[in-house]
Amino acid sequence: xxxxxxxxxxxxxxxxxxxxxxxxxxxxxxxxxxxxxxxxxxxxxxxxxxxxxxxxxxxxxxxxxxxxxxxxxxxxxxxxxxxxxxxxxxxxxxxxxxxxxxxxxxxxxxxxxxxxxxxxxxxxxxxxxxxxxxxxxxxxxxxxxxxxxxxxxxxxxxxxxxxxxxxxxxxxxxxxxxxxxxxxxxxxxxxxxxxxxxxxxxxxxxxxxxxxxxxxxxxxxxxxxxxxxxxxxxxxxxxxxxxxxxxxxxxxxxxxxxxxxxxxxxxxxxxxxxxxxxxxxxxxxxxxxxxxxxxxxxxxxxxxxxxxxxxxxxxxxxxxxxxxxxxxxxxxxxxxxxxxxxxxxxxxxxxxxxxxxxxxxxxxxxxxxxxxxxxxxxxxxxxxxxxxxxxxxxxxxxxxxxxxxxxxxxxxxxxxxxxxxxxxxxxxxxxxxxxxxxxxxxxxxxxxxxxxxxxxxxxxxxxxxxxxxxxxxxxxxxxxxxxxxxxx
Length: 488
Ligand SMILES: Cc1cc2nc3c(=O)[nH]c(=O)nc-3n(C[C@H](O)[C@H](O)[C@H](O)COP(=O)(O)OP(=O)(O)OC[C@H]3O[C@@H](n4cnc5c(N)ncnc54)[C@H](O)[C@@H]3O)c2cc1C
Fold this sequence. Notes:
The chain is 28% helix and 26% strand. The chain is of the alpha+beta class. The strands form six sheets. Strands 1, 2, 7, 8, 9, 10, 18 and 19 form an eight-stranded mixed beta sheet that branches.
């Protein structure tokens, strides 16, 4: 905060934490015209790599907030990745066939992702209040009073209609509200290092997951001629040195990497895995978003991506409640949609981490044989690619295209911002409410409304928010009705 800026006393949405989840929420709200204040206890944005993999589904949302393009320009774009043993690929997952405008994994360090998010927020006129730490949160009708310590050490109070706890795995917001964070801390630890490396093949842009007898090693190119190495290590192991990284590559790396050597250690850390999901994502007027709500193994590069999707799910709902008169009950769907997704994610990343860190010789051999065999079964690698890329995540019971709760490829409706879309086989009725972008599409046989987070809305929701009647033109197996456009 610069000296001339007045410290805010109230806001519609107080965002605690300016990590990727908090900034995605902040940009989305600002873009939608919702008043928000973002605080972060750190004096400046962190400069560590941490999450390096951005999944296609995340890019689909980041495009709507005008961040995807610059990030893609700065990153590396492999078309897939492989799980390998020391000498051969066991199973290769390709993103090339994905039904997404982004059929690649974007590799970009988290500090760069953060820089792009901060920049976009600035373009929208926002700025993060840095060096400001949340101390306490108490209800104060109709919202909360947040006590914070500002960058001079003074206590301040910000009154907020809604609060988003985007304050990471040790969330103060979660603690102050007494929300449980049950789960486990498996005996899994990972060493993470970013290095300069002499010998990375120039034509190799894909990440390699090597499953060696000594443990797992992920090796990946990073922009700027850097290399990221992640290895499972015994609990209590200190952060890897350059020599340790060389050793790990020699003992666990794929054959094509073992001729190279680390020339500079740029950063290194260890990470003790925790697998936890908050018992509630909504508590009255307060929400948990990102790592504050769920934390899991880094296997699969899902964590930051999931936090960004949480923010995408919440932003438009807050906008409807604060600016468009929607009932507050709309906000219940944030927990209903995102918490089961986090629970499934933990099961998924747990399975991957368990498979990747098997120690028994027999079990490892069996795993490798199964992976190699699965790679030959039609449809298996495609299904796994869809899973890792997150593009199939939805909130309905039916995966039939355009069923309520399913995600729609943003190219179908040319989605470039946070407006609702109406996909219709014919011209749209003239009395459609404002705010809809209409696309005539032969992909649909009847009108389909798509939410700003790319999910097909149920007819009931469209009626509730926009006043259209939803006649049961096509009753699906799950009882959801498709949309028919007639006014009530
Ligand atoms: C070493 C390491 C490697 C990782 N590698 C990967 C990876 O490869 N792939 C992946 O997907 N994920 C990875 N992660 C996890 C990933 O970094 C997180 O999932 C992601 O940062 C979560 O974003 P977030 O915005 O929810 O929380 P955070 O990024 O943790 O941001 C929370 C913010 O809240 C602020 N804050 C906290 N408390 C307060 C308070 N009381 N008041 C004000 N501000 C506060 C913090 O300063 C911070 O800026 C890694 C993490 C670590 C530590």
